[in-house]
Specification:
It is globular and about 45 Å long. It is built from eleven helices and eight strands. It has helices spanning 16-29, 47-54, 80-85, 96-101, 106-119, 131-135, 139-150, 179-195, 201-204, 215-222, 239-248; strands at 5-9, 37-41, 60-63, 90-93, 122-127, 162-165, 207-210, 229-232. Helix content is 42%, strand content 14%. It is α/β, with parallel strands linked by helices and 250 residues long. The protein has a single domain (5-248), classed as TIM Barrel (Alpha-Beta Barrel), CATH 3.20.20.70. It has an eight-stranded parallel barrel with strand order 1-2-3-4-5-6-7-8, surrounded by six helices. Bound molecules: 2-phosphoglycolic acid. 2-phosphoglycolic acid (PGA) binds next to strand 8.
């Protein structure tokens, strides 16, 4: 049985002071909850205060990106070592907004993922097709190459990766993939993982769905056999709705 994992991707929302307030609300809304992995990923400027607010909590801290180098002349970037020092345990990598607006490629996703794993972070590697790609019959090829190229050469560390399937057409649009549509791609991802790994690895990897997951659609998505959690954007910014999604995963 795979443990479900619900992660909040706050994107560029919440100042550090606001992050502490939201984390306190989430902590009380989830008081007593066990049996599910919960992660919050605030902006980088919030990580230190968010880490302090999460001390002693079962909720983990995640970043929204990580650079592949340990240090150096990479203006605006943040290394895995820097994140680890702040108590960060997870790093979202290759989110579609990074791919779309900041030139992220499967190759850079792979470099970031390798660096994250080397430093002991758990990468949440995002994949997903655009509407044009889906409509022109390219979904399978796009998602497969994102998985194969993004996760190339990880060796045994592949087993520590979390994958988020986020159809770009469902992100922030209110248009969710149907449970059947999502399950179809999750199964494809797991088959693809089986092709690049051995033993029980593909079966053990957590695959989250992301894209307008909300309290009212979470349960039926999470009931699908290959959907192991959610990467939540908008609904993660309100403690009650985030907590309701976590509870739907129990
Ligand atoms: P959304 O975002 O839940 O607001 O659609 C999900 C994501 O981009 O991770």
């Amino acid at each position: 049985m795979r443990t479900k994992i619900i992660a909040g991707n706050w994107k560029m929302n919440k100042t550090a002071a606001e992050a502490v307030v939201l984390i306190d609300e989430i902590k009380s809304a989830l008081d007593g909850v066990t049996g599910v992995d919960v992660v919050v990923c605030p902006p980088a400027t919030d990580l230190k205060d968010a880490g302090a607010a999460l001390k002693e909590s079962f909720i983990s801290l995640g970043s929204q990106n990580v650079h592949w180098a340990e240090s150096g002349a990479f203006t605006g970037e943040i290394s895995a070592t820097m994140l680890c020092e702040l108590g960060v345990g997870y790093a979202i990598i290759g989110h579609s907004e990074r791919r779309q607006y900041f030139g992220e490629s499967n190759e850079s996703v792979n470099k970031r993922t390798q660096a994250a794993l080397k430093a002991g972070l758990i990468p949440i590697v995002c994949v997903g097709e655009t509407l044009e790609e889906r409509d022109s019959g390219q979904m399978e090829q796009v998602v497969t190459s994102q998985v194969v190229e993004g996760l190339a050469d990880l060796g045994d560390d592949l087993s520590r990766v979390v994958i988020a399937y986020e159809p770009v057409w469902a992100i922030g649009t209110g248009r969710t993939a149907t449970p059947a549509q999502a399950q179809e791609v999750h199964a494809l991802i797991r088959r693809t993982l089986a092709g690049i790994s051995s033993g029980n690895v593909a079966n053990a990897i957590q695959i989250q769905y992301g894209g307008s997951m909300k309290p009212d659609n979470a349960a039926e998505l999470l009931a699908q056999p290959d959907i192991d959690g959610g990467l939540i954007g908008g609904a993660a910014l309100v403690a009650d709705s985030f907590a309701a999604i976590v509870k739907a995963a129990l």
